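Whether sequence alone determines local backbone shape is best considered at the level of individual chains. The sequence in question and its structure tokens are set out directly beneath this paragraph.

===
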Amino acid sequence: MRPAFRLIGHTFWDLKLRGIQNIPQNGGLIIASNHQSYLDPFAISVPIKRPIRFLAWNEVLNWPFVGKVMRVLGAWPLQVEGSDPAAIRRSHQWLREGGAVMIFPEGGRGQPDGSMVRFKAGAVRIALEARVPILPVTIRGANRAWPRGRLIPGRGKIEIIYHPIFHPQQQPEEDARACARRESEQLAGIIRSAL
């Protein structure tokens, strides 16, 4: 589906991809991005030439059409509020096997104007536990191409920036939760820097 979405993206949204040289071709990887619209996982996946699994809000996967499409395309259900051990175990296994997992640390779409909401620490926590790097990604313009309240996307310009790999590090004697929060703020700063 990536070639089809690339064509659609260039035709309808003048899709621009920057920093694709930063995308690792193999090895366990978390792809962490801001979240502006339901187009995001598909647009971000266009230049990535490896299987990706998506952690998606479990409620969305119950929607009649969208849920089925997302499952076929590799989405796994995640309870956004609280802990979800099954989704985390599944992600760890996939990462140990050298797979890539896409996570939106905002836990849902950001603000309607495209600005971000505070990141949850799950992406960094999984990266630390699985000992894998994070590919920070910034998506711009998707909030205007498919704003909240509109049933289908419209035309617009979408730009995706793939930043250099981020390696979260726990400081000596640092509490795991404090580390995940601190490193999540650093990750958010990297992604926000290109908005």
Notes: The helical segments are 2-13, 40-45, 64-72, 85-96, 122-130, 142-145, 176-192. The first strand starts at residue 16 and ends at 18. The beta strands are 16-18, 29-33, 52-57, 75-78, 100-103, 134-140, 159-162.
